[in-house]
Structures are given as C-alpha cells and as structure tokens.
Amino acid sequence: METLIRFIFILIFLVSSNYILAKPTSGHLVVLQVLDKVTARISTLEIIVGKSVKYGSLEIEIFGCKKRSPEEIPEDFVLMRIMDEVRPNNFKRVFQGWMLSSSPTIAPFEHSTYDVWVKDCKIDIDSE
Q1: For residue 110, with 0-12 CB atoms within 10 Å meaning exposed, 13-18 middle and 19 or more buried, which class applies?
Q2: At a CB cut-off of 8 Å and minimum separation 6, what does 56 contact?
Q3: Residue 125, SS3?
C-alpha cells in the first residue's frame, strides 16, 4: 500500500512538473556579437531568423531562436550554422548547433580569428 501511494505521488509530480515551467517563445531576430581577435574589434550583428549574413570570412546562418519567459532565469537559445570561407567560393562548416546566451562554452565556436556569442533573441510582441 505504501509503495502504491509513493508511486501515485511520483506520477502526479511528474505529470504536473510539465506545467510548472513556461514554454520558450520563438523569436524573429537574433543579436550576435563577434570579436575579431586580430584587430580586437567587437561588432554587433542583427540577423533575421531564416537568413544569413557574411562577416569577414564567416557566413552565419540562423535557423531559429527561442527565449525563456521573463519569470524564469534569462536564457536565449539560437540554432545556427557558421561557415568559414577557406578559399573563394569554398566554405568549411566550423559550427552547427544550438548556442546559449548564458553559457557559450557549452557548445563552443572554435576559430583562430573570430569569437561569436549570442546577446539576445528578439521576440515580436505584436504577434504573440
């Protein structure tokens, strides 16, 4: 009987825990910062989701971004691919995956000339 009560309690907890956290909101614009290690210049890039931007020898393409609700710990998630132009019209993929704004080292972007990190995922308030 005690095992059954524990099982029911755990089941109720697991089912209700899905509703405790709000689902992240999809964004329409990503703000990235890029550090050129040679010149020590930091640039801010704004890229629309679904578009790509060329910066130096890099081509950065954004597939999606999500932002946590304001009630939770702030976090932005960006799905991107970064290509490096090693020769004219010859690109090499140097990063593909999710990058987090609070912990860019979880999925690090390793490049000899550039560092890229997420600053923000902008959401369109009117469409929500």
Answers
A1: exposed
A2: 36, 113, 114
A3: helix
Beta-carbon contacts of residue 71 (< 8 Å; ≥ 6 apart): 22
- Name the DSSP class of 74: -
pLDDT tens, residue by residue, 79-120? 999 999 989 889 999 999 999 988 877 777 888 999 999 999
Q: Which residues contact 26 (CB under 8 A, 6 or more apart)?
A: 64, 65, 66, 123
What is the rounded distance in angstroms from the CA atom of residue 33 to the CA atom of residue 126?
A: 26
Q: In 10 A of CB 92, how many CB atoms?
A: 11
CA angle, corner 24, sides to 21 and 25, nearest 5? Answer: 140
